[in-house]
Amino acid sequence: MTNETCILSISGGLGKHLYLTAAVKVLKNTYPSRDVICVVAWPELFADLPGVKRVYPLGGTQYFYDEYIEGKDPLIFAQEVYFHTDHVLQRSPLIETWCKVYGLPYNGEKPYIKINPEQRRAIKNFYDPIIGGKPFLLIHTAGGLFTNTNPYSWARDLPIDVASKVADHFKKTHFIMQVCRPSAPKIPNVFVRNEQLSNTELIGLLELTDKRLLIDSSLQHGCACLGLKSTVLWNATSPKIFGHDLHDNIQAKEKPAKEIPGAYLFKFQFDQNPNEMPYEEEDLKDLYNIDQIIASLESQKNEPSKGFG
Q1: Domain total for the chain?
Q2: Beta strand residue intervals within the chain, DSSP E
Q3: pLDDT tens string 107-152
């Protein structure tokens, strides 16, 4: 292993990690002779990525200083991009802001993920009998699968009335699966996955789908990694900084004006934010244009995954 390394450190959620897999490509394109060493909260996402030499879990870095720092020539990439001015002011997509933090060139690098043939075969063998040969519509209604305990987090979650109307439209022609956290409301009469899945199963499941209705959470980033065009609904967060041009990004209707005393660098919190909700109960039923959502889903085709290329 060379003494010249790029040490990439990322903390935070699954979606952020999926998005910032693109940082590995940026580093390898900028410093092709250096080994990329990743220290991340979700190491399984990075372990087999082309361009990555070693992966360590946050908090699991025994002997790291001796191995990579003392007497070596590392470049450290460990700053929190969420607190950069361009991110707070929503001036640029997350990966572009990440590059600005370090003065690196951005040349359109996209997120990527690797699912090996054995993992893909296991996922297919498990789900094929459940899907039963029908076209597969996946609806992701509630993010924070591993951390959030709220039944409904208005800033990102999909209102159950909206999800149910979409499911009713497609239920005669498609197998429908809802992915959500255990506490979230359930769409009536659809297959629900609300238990904790491995990241490989969660993302690999997307390759079996024909249509995808998602929110600003991990699965929209997973689809971007796989090159699968999706319909993504947005509320308090912005597709400009967290979204992908590949998708149909649909914004909720304009929010009523409301002062948020606790807002600091960001107007709304992603989760655990009931006091910030600007809507009335009746607003949730027409928060999005159902016809627009259905038209977007109807236009989707299940194209072959681009994988990690």
Answers
A1: 2
A2: 4-10, 35-40, 52-57, 73-77, 136-140, 175-179, 191-193, 211-215, 231-234, 248-251
A3: 999 999 999 999 999 999 999 999 999 999 999 999 876 667 788 8
